[in-house]
Amino acid sequence: xxxxxxxxxETLFLLLRIVAGFLFACHGAQKxxxxxxxxxxxxxxxxxxxxxxxxxxLLLVVxxxxxxxxxxxxxxxxxxxxxxxxxxxxxxxxxxxxxxxxFAFLFLFIAAHGAGPLSLDAIMAKSGKGAAxxxxxxxxxxxxx
Length: 145
Known about the structure:
single chain, mainly alpha, 7 helices, disordered C terminus
């Protein structure tokens, strides 16, 4: 059976990457700037988390250095989950760790997938600049990107 949404997969992945990156950047803005209902972080570890979230989120939105940004974001979310949420309960729903767990696996998927053809990584790879080590994604190489 064919999947009728398959023809939209690149566009849907683009939307997934943009929305996830934007939401992640919003969490970073809370920590770095005290915006969006958050308090400005003062602890060095929280400031570092804010930098990873804000900077990594923006890189994901535009699809630049995507594999690196997504891998760092995934690691930061896994660290947050195991340091803050897991000690409270083994169940993410009880420890309010669903969002960090979901972000960790989503960003790990994006890191493995690559930015996709609709990204700055793909544009730079096509022009010979090679932003993310010369490949936008393993799928883009098969399509000539």
